Known about the structure:
single chain; alpha+beta; 2 domains; two-stranded antiparallel ribbon; two-stranded antiparallel sheet; 47% helix
Amino acid sequence: MIVFLARLVRLLLVLFLLRLLLRFVAAVVAGYRGHGRPAPRVEEMVRDRVCDTFVPRARALVAMVDGREQHFCSARCRDRALALRPSAP
């Protein structure tokens, strides 16, 4: 009986190690297949200085404030920045 249990444990151990080896090989193959893919495109972020949030440049509203191009997350922030400008003398 003990010999049978020892063989059973040895068989289970071999099967477990075989399963680990197959998972490792599958992960290596999956990584190799994905190796040539281009990196995902990262959008440049710009900062809205009114509410201090970052917005993708493509979605930001742009306005000239004090002769500089400023980016805003919304029309509300843009309007606040334009309202806060000091008036010309």
